[in-house]
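Hypothesis: this fold can be encoded by more than one sequence.
Test: take the structure tokens below, design a sequence, compare later.
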């Protein structure tokens, strides 16, 4: 039976791979405001830059530093033995694959969304599936007993490529905070920009710091809203409404939801506009996106400002 993505990630741990890691935390000059908020019934979390630290602050499909793309593509070509089925053109193999990769991205970016203000989320797995299909047409063979079919294989390639491109690690106290909330009467889930491999990436990083409860007890799966599943990325209002609709099925109104993230204009401001309470996480300057003027703007101003994730527990009055 083919390996699941989690099993594949664990298998990679035993191989000779060196992954990038996030740099040291760069503290943000900010004064926390963590007074309790009454009536919060659910917490929604952003992932990258909040629960999960990531090199360069956010996940990139096409990294602005070409050298990083080169390194990740070279590792991917070698690990999955792609070169033999790639067209022989002048230049390095990674350059050829990079051209193909950007071509796929460009085509997918041309697709629109049904509502004004919504932004398309491109799936890294879909990009790699297109690239794999092109390789297969050139006699590339997949070990389906190990990797699974083309779709399953593309997901594993996407995971490997992004592990090679950007380092990730759990944010300080993220695991213990999630565990504490999961044991309270407050529900919690993800409302996040994400890729098909993000959940596995996050849970693996968190489990390095603490023993987590089962996923079904840690997070509300019914309300979990990941951009890769909805097909929309932040700040698309429909992404937030999707999560709020799921929570409403359990009698939770927008004003009873606290959304936590590190970006103000392109995340928390949308949640605030839809009636949610917001907590701006100013924990790491690399992922923090807000200016002093933004924070003072009544239309954007978050309800709370935290510099450490465990301050959320005080806001919720969880001991």
């Amino acid at each position: 039976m083919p390996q699941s993505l989690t099993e594949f990630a664990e298998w990679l741990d035993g191989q000779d791979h060196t992954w990038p890691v996030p740099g040291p935390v760069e503290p943000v000059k900010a004064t926390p405001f963590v007074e309790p908020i009454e009536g919060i019934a659910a917490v929604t979390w952003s992932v990258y830059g909040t629960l999960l630290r990531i090199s360069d602050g956010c996940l990139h499909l096409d990294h602005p530093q070409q050298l990083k793309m080169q390194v990740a593509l070279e590792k991917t070509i070698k690990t999955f033995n792609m070169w033999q089925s790639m067209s022989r053109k002048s230049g390095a193999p990674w350059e050829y694959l990079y051209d193909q990769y950007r071509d796929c991205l460009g085509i997918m970016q041309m697709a629109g969304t049904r509502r004004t203000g919504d932004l398309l989320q491109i799936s890294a797995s879909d990009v790699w599936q297109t690239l794999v299909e092109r390789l297969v047409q050139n006699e590339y063979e997949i070990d389906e007993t190990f990797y699974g079919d083309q779709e399953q294989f593309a997901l594993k390639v996407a995971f490997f490529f992004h592990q090679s491109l950007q380092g990730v690690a759990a944010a300080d106290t993220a695991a213990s905070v999630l565990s504490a909330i999961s044991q309270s009467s407050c529900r919690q889930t993800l409302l996040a920009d994400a890729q098909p491999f993000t959940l596995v990436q996050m849970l693996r990083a968190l489990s390095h710091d603490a023993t987590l409860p089962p996923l079904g007890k840690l997070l509300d799966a019914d309300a979990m809203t990941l951009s890769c599943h909805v097909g929309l990325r932040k700040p698309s209002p429909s992404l937030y409404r999707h999560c709020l609709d799921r929570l409403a099925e359990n009698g939770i109104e927008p004003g009873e939801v606290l959304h936590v993230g590190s970006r103000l204009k392109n995340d928390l401001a949308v949640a605030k506009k839809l009636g949610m309470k917001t907590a701006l996480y100013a924990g790491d300057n690399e992922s923090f996106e807000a200016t002093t003027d933004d924070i003072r703007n009544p239309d954007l101003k978050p309800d709370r400002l935290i510099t450490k994730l465990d301050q959320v527990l005080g806001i919720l009055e969880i001991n």
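The mean pLDDT is 95. The beta strands are 42-45, 52-54, 119-120, 168-170, 187-192, 225-226, 232-233, 257-261, 277-281, 304-306.
Hypothesis status: open.
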